[in-house]
Amino acid sequence: MENIIANSFKIGSSNDALTLNVIRRQGPLSRVEISKLTGLTPPTVTNITTKLLDLSLIVEDRIGESSGGRRPLLLKINSLLATVIVVYIRSEKMIGYVIDPEFQIQLEDSRNIKGKKEDEILKMLLDIISDCRKKAAVPVLAVGVVVRGPVRRKDGIAVFVPNIGWRNTPLKEIIEEHIGLPAFIENDVKALSNGEYYYGSVKDANSMILLKVSHGIGGGIIFNGSLYRGVNDSAGEVGHTTIDIAGPICSCGNYGCLEALASEKALVDAVAKAIKEGQSSIICDLVNGDLEDLTPEVIYEAADAGDELGIRMLGQVARYLGIGIANLVNTFNPEIFIIGGGIVRGRQYIEDIVRQTVTDRSFESSSDVLEINFLTTTTENTLKGVADIVFAEVTESIWLGQR
């Protein structure tokens, strides 16, 4: 099947790849809809889709609704065409998935990485990819790996993965050498941003910024329907923009970064500091007096019970978060801003403050047209986002004859 795809695109054109990706992302579609979405003429779309049907890259799905004339035949990607392996490396788990072009998970393999050394986790990564490939019922085209921290995507290098300790690890080279499949390495927030843009709540928007606020803060920026990555794939590290030069030290070594003031870690640090300074809170009872056991979840639980300190510290985090968002709104003027990650658990305590701060601190011409949304789930669209990137990259690289 892989050879069929390769032969198709080596003798085809970029319009073939464009058409296939549009059908994969937005199908089932009629030929008229494909023409509108791609900007290709109807005869060109007919010629390309006929070729793709002959090669079984796409299939006829069903008859669509009429808009006044003949009811159109809808086309979609062939879900039996091929699969990709996605490995999502989280805080304490590594989960391997086999995913088809319609983003259905064919199988899942989860393993615990807590307490494991860097080399052990790397071996586990190769093992999980190998096992998923052996168990896959449909040929696997490529591998996508999702990690936290900055990534040099073109080289496939994980610059720094904070929960593991990997630094400048050439994951792409290692996977391709040991597994023999094309590998693509992606930052988790960029993967989530891509998935949310194409398959989530964002509809008919050309620009979007997504901020994932959990232990740290990362961002994904989309303009004209594509991820903006920057010259060296570093765009989106908004957690390390300076909010207060006299603020606390950040994990990056600078002082007063947004991450040091508005992340869940910052929330925990602020609450712990306040309690040590003598401020009363039921949080002490919830952790049995041991602040080493303090987590964001404990603070949200205390706030839900009416704890004044927990609610006040959430408000403090919200103000800093609002300042960071206002800076981004003034800089990029996006249509939609999405806040995701663990901080959304405290939405009822932060939303009004975030919105008001953004309104107060950004230009009216930007904030008046801005839509702010909160994202409650992230895993599904992270997987869709990275799988989409892998399928698109494979399609393009085959067309270019780079495989």
TrEMBL record:
Gene Ontology molecular function, alphabetical: kinase activity
Any single biological process term in GO: D-xylose metabolic process
Annotated signal sequence range: none
Pfam families, per the entry: ROK
InterPro entries assigned to the protein according to its UniProt record, in alphabetical order: ATPase_NBD, ROK, ROK_cs, WH-like_DNA-bd_sf, WH_DNA-bd_sf
Superkingdom as given in the UniProt entry: Bacteria
Keywords carried by this UniProt record: Carbohydrate metabolism, Kinase, Transferase, Xylose metabolism
Family label: Belongs to the ROK (NagC/XylR) family.
Function comment: Transcriptional repressor of xylose-utilizing enzymes.
Cited PANTHER family: BIFUNCTIONAL UDP-N-ACETYLGLUCOSAMINE 2-EPIMERASE_N-ACETYLMANNOSAMINE KINASE (PTHR18964:SF149), ROK (REPRESSOR, ORF, KINASE) FAMILY (PTHR18964)
Stated name of the protein: ROK family protein (Putative glucokinase)
